[in-house]
Amino acid sequence: MQIKQFRYSTDNLGYLIYGETSAMAIDGGGAADEIISFIEEKGVQLKFLTNTHSHPDHTVGNETLLNRTGAIFIDTSTLLKNKKIELDGNDIQVFHTPGHSDDSVVFYFGNILVSGDTLFNGKIGRCFTGDMKGFYEAIKMLMALPEDTVIYAGHDYVEEYMGVAKSLEPDNPNIDAYVKNYDPTHVRSTLEEEFKVNPCLRFNDPKIVSILEAKGRPAGTEFERFASIRDMV
Predict the structure, then answer these.
(1) Which of 164, 154, 75, 90 is nearest to 120 (CA)?
(2) Which residues does residue 46 pair with via DSSP β-bridges, in sequence order?
(3) Contact status, residue 104 vs residue 81, Cβ threshold 8 Å
(4) Which long-range contacts (CB under 8 A, 24 or more apart) does 81-89 make?
(5) How far apart are CA 111 and CA 225, in angstroms?
(6) Is the pTM of this model over 0.90?
(7) Is the dihedral of CA 209, 210, 215, 216 positive or negative?
(8) 28-58: pLDDT as tens digits
(9) Phi, psi of 109 (to 5 degrees)
(10) In sequence order, what are the residues at sequence separation of 6 or more whose Cβ sits closer than 8 angstroms to the Cβ of residue 130?
């Protein structure tokens, strides 16, 4: 199973997961023309279309892609019920990650995580639901994945978020290395890299804890530290 990234609008990122004969698009409607050209070149059929969540910048163009390919749309309730999608004999796992939105999900196969707006490269998403506890639990679940997990997020905010990280920790050498490896034509990072630079995953790091305490932010418990750093950045 392979993955192909497609950029649309200014910073949205959509994906195509594909095998030898079949493919599934995730948040891909905004790149309908590019996806259709790609599957024709590869000689595979677009079997499914789905989304990481229902915010309109991710669902834009869904109908166009469905009408032009005959793909089957998999809605959130079906994703959460089945907890996996079979594609070319391989299982793609589906995890519910409420927080950014109630219906947020991520997709995991091999060592690849399509994380939508739950986990970005360099930060985590905004908690539009107000369910910070649910968001915390979702992020903790993703942090338990193997460190070689490759993160493919729903937007490219790398330069902006690394600027924020640098303002918090100007002496963190990992940030410069992270930015140097940034490729706007193929945006991704590993979980191991995120643990070195992403403030929102480092809420137990003594450096981040000291920053929170210096700014008078709640930091007594792990959840308080998570919520505080998420609010700060």
Answers:
(1) 154
(2) 23
(3) no
(4) 85/24, 85/48, 85/50, 87/1, 87/17, 87/19, 87/22, 87/23, 87/24, 87/47, 87/48, 88/1, 88/18, 88/19, 88/20, 88/21, 88/22, 89/19
(5) 28
(6) yes
(7) positive
(8) 999 999 999 999 999 999 999 999 999 999 9
(9) -155, 145
(10) none
* The two structure tokens encoding residue 69: 């390919």
What tokens were used for 218?
């709640």
Token representation of residue 13: 């990122």
pLDDT in tens, 87-146: 999 999 999 999 999 999 999 999 999 999 999 999 999 999 999 999 999 999 999 999
Give CA–CA dist 6/35, Å, rounded: 8
Backbone φ, ψ for residue 151 (5° rounding): -100, 120
DSSP 71: P
